[in-house]
Design the sequence.
């Protein structure tokens, strides 16, 4: 099935198809000077055909082209190096942007800061506490300048300072402080009060203070604690819910908070992460000279309760920053946004809880086509290890005022999971959930934050209770990884670039399609071996698959640059196959686009393996039969091919050319029209008369039986004229369209285009074997219909009959070689089968283009590769140059060729056991990389294995 549309007249895809001089065609490949830190890019190549090149013309073209963005430059580098590249300039405290090898972008957004700027450089947050030279204590790297006391005399002093010189909070301690014991992000002042430790824990945006009352005897002394608070440039305001909000005195903007403090015992978990006995803590704030006094009052009843298990922890916390997450509990009135854990479900003997996480929106995602999105959470606790369902939702925004009774709307459920971790028997670990559905919705709305809601599916089941780490957890902040498509870059990968060069060469050289297809197979085969050699140099596991002819190595020992390898393989083959053409401008343009991050040694190594791959291909094709100059004038006997325009038959010995994958051109030779192998029997048969009369009716230049759509299809697939890219070029162009639609990488294109090229070249040999090397060198319909006297009573001659096929002047013509089988059909069948084997299905919708001068601007959309091949074949009947069996038997033979090529050449790597490919940041990234390796036929299978789910979301990608 197809549907057709029309582009403005004079355009067919990207080109008009008019001939031009060598070196003057439209092949946009932009100059990118890329360094991984601070990428710079400019364009130098012209966007279309122009006058002969001079230095001045090239400079003018460079000035007119737009500067490539850092993001586009990163995409090119990622494609060339087959790994993701960070867009350094896009970094924020919470987000990291990567360009992927397939041209997509991935944005990871953490709910809390993971880095901060210091002296113009980005520093990763590290809350590990160390002793400073001045005796104080501080994190190795903290975005809010956190400092702790290294001890204090009897009069006490400043315990914690948070913030900068103009806006800060300093919390004091009244009384002596011992030298703290440091462990990770925690400082413990042992017995700061009798029987009570004072613990300060650094978080990503602030700190938590714990009073750990170790015994019941110490409880009375620790029940009431007063702490001086100094706020520089800030105002502290107490809320009705015992929270404290810090606002900037100049802007009145909220910059920090002290959430509702809480206390808990050690009945289940001394850290308070698991279900425990909990109680609220009183907080009073009074202004005094130079600041405030915080009076923290523990619940004395809770402390005295015989069921309370010591130690008891009293926990006020202070945070600076815009990140926000919170928990609401049915019936609860406290602000729980300061909790270290996000509670989900019904806690044992308590009410149900739900949690919310806000993620700052990065403008990079807004309006984009989101491909997938993954939420990463660290599960710190579960009440059991039994799988119990919980859900991820898109919700409205939340604040410190959000409570169970004032929850935002729960709009869309994105995922349901039974992942259960955190209990003693199933340990804490990272879990990932696919939330693509809601992130797609988010991308269509411009807003500052996006909010995720978490809740249990069965909120009455206490075994479903879970706790996840919040944004202020020192090492486990929630994150979302979003991968999205981007608008097409003004940059082409080097495989597609050289395919454009090849197509332009087809236009300029012209001639029969067989030699053109051979040139394509030689060039793309060498490109594949060059790219494969470059990747193999990184390690055997990185190979693209089995080599076609050679696995080359560079003598200088450097890892070859893939693009340099591709460039020189293509350049050397093309100038060998087309010695009359000059490709110096093309290689110069290609070389100018190599990213600056590639060293001179890597360029040289790439050049070397590219040249070796080309040399191997050129040597292998010496004496392959392509140079034959045999003349073929046909016969005047009815049925046998005869010239229709006085020209001899083109490339009559092409069926003898050595194939690239087949054993010979006879390997898939069709049985003959309707099984006939003797011409006299064929032309006297009823099947022959039926087919002649069909094309006589439908293929006539002015047929009234042919529909408008049939006429369009016939001309769409023609491309017989010199000056067009010919049938192989059209199919290469369709391969480019599919490559772009499916976002193949450079190395994926190296393999796909080689397989397509081998299939088409061997299809040409197969078709020409049937045309010339059997007794059925069948005449064209033009000859059959005009001649009266073929010996078949069911046919009648028409000396004025003309086919629809015509040249640029309107003169009707038939291609100058026998009809059976159709070269178009055989090329199309082989190409369709190669695409089916590559993409794993025949059913794929794509829109095809043409540059036949009589169908300029026409596009036709197909739902399968076979549908395109079949229309290509029958279109030759409607064009008046072929019989039906020329097409059906040609497609059938072509499919066998494509099947054989895919099964025998450039096979994927294989291993008996799983082999480590690389480490990736999280499950989503690992899964995407694994799918790409399988989709691009580099490996047959993959699996992602968590490295250490208790400490990191990182995964190892294994292949086999």
Sequence:
């Amino acid at each position: 099935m197809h549907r057709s549309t029309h582009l403005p007249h004079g355009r067919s895809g990207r080109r008009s198809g008019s001939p031009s001089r060598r070196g003057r065609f439209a092949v946009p490949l932009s100059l990118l000077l890329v360094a991984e830190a601070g990428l710079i890019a400019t364009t130098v190549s012209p966007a279309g055909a122009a006058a002969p090149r001079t230095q001045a013309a090239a400079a003018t073209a460079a000035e007119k082209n737009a500067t490539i963005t850092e993001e586009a430059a990163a995409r090119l580098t990622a494609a060339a190096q087959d790994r993701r590249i960070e867009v350094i300039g896009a970094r924020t405290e919470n987000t990291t942007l990567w360009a992927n090898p397939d041209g997509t972008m991935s944005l990871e957004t953490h709910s809390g800061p993971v880095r901060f700027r210091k002296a113009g450089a980005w520093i990763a947050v590290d809350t590990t506490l160390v002793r400073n030279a001045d005796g104080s204590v501080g994190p190795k790297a903290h975005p809010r300048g956190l400092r702790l006391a290294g001890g204090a005399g009897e009069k006490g002093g400043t315990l914690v300072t948070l913030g900068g010189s103009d806006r800060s909070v300093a919390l004091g301690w009244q009384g002596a402080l011992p030298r703290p014991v440091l462990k990770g992000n925690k400082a413990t002042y042992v017995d700061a009060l009798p029987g009570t430790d004072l613990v300060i824990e650094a978080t990503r945006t602030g700190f938590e203070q714990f009073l750990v009352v170790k015994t019941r005897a110490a409880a009375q002394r620790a029940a009431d604690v007063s702490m001086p608070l100094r706020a520089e440039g800030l105002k502290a305001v107490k809320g009705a819910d015992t929270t404290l909000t810090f606002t900037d005195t100049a802007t009145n903007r909220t910059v920090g908070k002290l959430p509702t403090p809480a206390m808990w015992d050690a009945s289940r978990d001394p850290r308070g992460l698991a279900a425990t006995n909990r109680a609220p803590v009183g907080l009073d704030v009074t202004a005094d000279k130079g600041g405030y006094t915080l009076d923290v009052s523990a619940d004395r009843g809770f402390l005295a309760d015989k069921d309370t298990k010591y130690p008891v922890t009293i926990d006020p916390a202070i945070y600076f920053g815009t990140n926000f997450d919170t928990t609401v509990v049915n019936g609860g009135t406290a602000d729980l946004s300061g909790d270290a854990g996000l509670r989900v479900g019904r806690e044992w003997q308590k009410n149900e809880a739900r949690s919310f996480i806000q993620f700052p929106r990065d403008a990079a995602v807004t309006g984009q086509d989101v491909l997938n999105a993954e939420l990463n959470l660290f599960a710190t606790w579960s009440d059991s290890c039994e799988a119990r369902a919980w859900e991820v939702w898109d919700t409205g925004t939340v604040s410190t005022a959000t409570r169970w009774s004032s929850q935002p709307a729960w709009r869309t459920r994105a995922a349901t999971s039974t992942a259960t971790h955190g209990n003693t028997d199933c340990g804490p670990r990272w879990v990932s959930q696919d939330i693509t559905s809601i992130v797609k919705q988010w991308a269509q709305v411009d807003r500052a934050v996006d909010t995720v809601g978490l809740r249990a599916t069965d909120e009455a089941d206490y075994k479903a209770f879970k706790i996840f780490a919040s944004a202020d957890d020192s090492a486990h902040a929630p994150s979302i990884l979003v991968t999205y498509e981007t608008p097409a870059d003004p940059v082409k990968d080097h495989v597609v670039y050289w395919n454009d060069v090849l197509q332009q060469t087809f236009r300029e050289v012209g001639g029969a399609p067989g030699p053109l297809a051979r040139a394509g197979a030689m060039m793309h085969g060498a490109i594949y071996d060059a790219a494969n050699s470059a990747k193999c140099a990184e390690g055997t596991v990185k190979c693209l698959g089995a080599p076609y002819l050679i696995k080359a190595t560079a003598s200088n020992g450097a890892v070859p640059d893939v693009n340099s390898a591709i460039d020189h393989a293509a350049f050397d083959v093309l100038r060998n196959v087309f010695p009359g053409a000059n490709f110096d401008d093309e290689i110069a343009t290609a070389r100018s686009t190599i990213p600056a991050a590639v060293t001179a040694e890597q360029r040289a190594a790439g050049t070397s393996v590219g040249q070796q791959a080309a040399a191997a291909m050129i040597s292998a094709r010496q004496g392959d039969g392509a140079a034959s100059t045999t003349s073929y004038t046909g016969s005047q006997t009815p049925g046998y091919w005869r010239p229709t325009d006085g020209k001899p038959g083109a490339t009559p010995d092409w069926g003898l050319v050595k194939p690239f994958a087949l054993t010979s051109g006879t390997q898939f030779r069709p049985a003959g029209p309707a099984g006939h192998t003797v011409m006299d029997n064929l032309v006297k048969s009823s099947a022959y008369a039926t087919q002649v009369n069909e094309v006589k009716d439908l293929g006539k230049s002015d047929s009234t039986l042919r529909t408008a759509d049939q006429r369009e299809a016939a001309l769409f697939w023609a491309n017989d004229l010199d000056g067009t890219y010919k049938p192989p070029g059209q199919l290469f162009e369709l391969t480019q369209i599919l490559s772009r639609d499916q976002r193949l990488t450079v190395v994926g294109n190296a393999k796909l285009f080689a397989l397509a090229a081998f299939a088409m070249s061997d299809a040409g040999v197969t078709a020409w074997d049937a045309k010339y090397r059997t007794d059925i060198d069948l005449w064209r319909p033009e000859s059959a219909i005009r001649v009266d006297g073929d010996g078949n009573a069911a046919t009648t001659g028409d000396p004025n009959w003309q086919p629809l096929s015509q040249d640029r002047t309107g003169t009707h013509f038939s291609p100058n070689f026998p009809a059976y089988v159709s070269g178009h059909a055989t090329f199309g069948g082989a190409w369709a089968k190669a695409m089916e084997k590559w993409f794993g299905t025949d059913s794929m919708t794509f829109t095809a283009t043409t540059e036949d001068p009589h169908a300029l601007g026409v596009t036709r959309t197909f739902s399968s590769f076979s549908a395109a091949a079949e229309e290509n074949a029958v279109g030759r009947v409607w064009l008046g140059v072929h019989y039906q069996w020329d097409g059906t038997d040609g497609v059938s033979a072509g499919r066998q060729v494509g099947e054989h090529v895919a099964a025998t050449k450039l096979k994927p790597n294989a291993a008996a056991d799983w082999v480590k490919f690389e480490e990736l940041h999280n499950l989503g990234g690992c899964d995407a990389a694994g799918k790409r390796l399988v989709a691009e036929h580099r490996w047959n299978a993959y699996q992602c294995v968590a490295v250490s789910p208790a400490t990191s979301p990182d995964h190892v990608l294994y292949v086999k």
Q: What stands out?
A: The chain is about 30% helix and 25% strand.
